[in-house]
Amino acid sequence: MTGLTPPIPDSDDWQLLLSESVRTSRELLDFLKIDPAQVAVLPEAQLDFPCRVPQPFMERMQPGNPEDPLLLQVLPLANEAAEVPGYVADPLQEAGATPAAGIIHKYNGRVLLVAAGACAVNCRYCFRRHFPYQDHLLDRFRLNQSVDYIRSEATISEVILSGGDPLVLSDRRLYDIVCRLDKIPHLRRLRIHTRLPVVLPQRVTPALTGLLESTRLNVVVVIHSNHANELDDEVGTGLAQLRGAGITLLNQSVLLRGVNDDAASLALLSETLFSRGVLPYYLHLLDPVAGSAHFHVPEVKARELYAAVLNRLPGYLVPRLVREEPGKGSKSLLLPACS
């Protein structure tokens, strides 16, 4: 292939919805008709990681329910301010794995490209909530450096676009990145880690699918969903469009206390994902990032839940239970509890 055809943006609806995202806890609670007195939120003045939630995601939450599993993922709570031993700003020690601006190179054969420094939704358990994006934002100079690094490392066969969320970028900006990667002969796969098809499915446009369909690289889109209530029909439509473009769809989840830490919820998530054409991929233990300790599920319970899910589902619907540890050459697989 000599080059990709630049996409013609067909809609800016998703960008408008993104710009209109709720940005305070009070707005979020007002939308859901929840009395703020029912919830111990973190005061805005103490937030170092702001609230951000697009309306399509809010509309899947249950009004009046302060324990809604989608709400709990995005509402800044007062216990984020608690200092908990072992919970740190850089739990995966990524600062030591950045050989070039915008590049995180931890595993053999693949690198992560920090394509964007923002997300459509700020998940409260995000392991990069303290990441210094300002040092890695891909202006043209840094993008040139990143691409040069990938080109110089012939052992790299896969590039992972992450961030932040790469799909907050415009189609033109994505085209620039994908076009450069497409021209590197030793690359085989392009993987995109994104939450947008779930929280803002309007982002899946013909221009986006056309761009991803036109590259010679095998494209894998890894979405991030933690609960079946996230996967409504509108999300299903967007996922079907990606699938129709020949894109492999996987999902990774995080095991979160109060959100999905029961076997029924995890099994329903897998069933719903598969009905939408997405294969369950990873179920992560929580990365110990500062501000997220209230989501912690003990490993003993995680293994018990995993065993229960194995008893409920066929093997191909069971994601691998994993922990990511600094310095390891791959994620650590965890076995289910013995019955």
Q: Largest sheet, order of strands side by side?
A: 1-2-3-4-5-6-7-8-9
Would you tell me the overall average pLDDT? Answer: 94
End-to-end separation? 53 Å
N-to-C order of helices and strands: HHHHEEHEHEHHEHEHEHEE
Q: Assign the CATH superfamily.
A: Aldolase class I
What ranges have pLDDT less than 50 throughout 5 or more consecutive residues?
A: none
Strand content: 5-15%
At CATH level 3, the topology is TIM Barrel
Main β-sheet description: 9 strands, mixed
Helix content: 25-40%
Query: What is the C-level CATH assignment?
Result: Alpha Beta
Q: List the total number of helices.
A: 11
- Helix vs. strand class: alpha/beta
Name the CATH architecture: Alpha-Beta Barrel
Protein described:
The chain is an alpha/beta fold. It has one domain: TIM Barrel. Helices cover 29% and strands 14% of the residues. It contains 11 helices and 9 strands. Strands 1-2-3-4-5-6-7-8-9 form a 9-stranded mixed β-sheet. It is globular. The termini are far apart. The mean pLDDT is 94.
